[in-house]
Predict the 3D structure of the following.
Amino acid sequence: MNIEIWMTIIGLGGASFAIRLSGYLLASQIPQDGMWARALQALPGCLIASLVSLMMLNGTMLEWISAVMVLAIAAITRKPTLAMFAGMVIIAAMRFAIA
Amino acid sequence: MSVAAATYGLAFGLLATQSGFNIFQTISMSALVFGGSSQLVAMEQLSIGLGAASAILAGSALNMRILLVTATMRNVLASRPWWQVGLGTFFATDASVALMQSAKPRNMTTSYWYFFGGGASLYVIWIAVTAIGAIVSSGVPNPQAIGLDFAIIAIFVATLPGMWRGTKDVLPWLLASGIVLIWGTLFPEYASWGLIGGAVIGAICAGLNNEH
């Protein structure tokens, strides 16, 4: 695990810098609009939507209820970290109530 | 902007320790990657045992959008020495776009040192709060009792409304989620490929859809 963590840190660090630098170097080749720009802009949202689906695939009922409440809090307040801490409190309270 | 980065960094520090990162690894990741959601995704992939390659791939996919950020910084960086180009692009984040937008109405020139200062101060805050999160988290005896194990799911769910760009996201997101759910049910041991596949196909769908 330790080696995997370091490989990830160094690998992702290198890849992220390469992405940043190539944006500058390839600026004239990267379209600011059109199909590829739309796809690049949509990629983060699609990845997070995929990741949440993957995490919830094996989620318990308590996790599902808490996740829906986190989504609602985040959508209303637009403060993701506040919603995260609220979610922690909600699931901890439900676990305490059941136990 | 700094406050948002600070709370997000704190969350990353808390979660990294719970995922088996030591404080030195947590700080190194923040210092080298400097991308909140990308770090979180990579860490999550590692913690569920999918390995370094999968973690790097998923983290990089999230950072691909920075290509568009540094591409728009071209005018500011052109004719600068190579080390200034390196530093300027290294500090580029989503916040750089916000800096550019906030500079325009105030009639400020989006100069190199304006970007450098904004990026560098965010970088220092980012590393500092990550370290604080890691220190605080390592003192928690029973993470489940305070819901810390749920925090990683919660932070990604909470990120969704901010990423939502309106009805044009409906089809790509449904497609991405659907692929993940079907693939994950059919081939649970290769679930991470469903993640990348779903995200890429969803993004291509968004690219092909010409409506705004």
In short: Residues 33-99 of chain A form one domain. The CA atoms of residues 74 and 80 of chain A lie 5 Å apart.
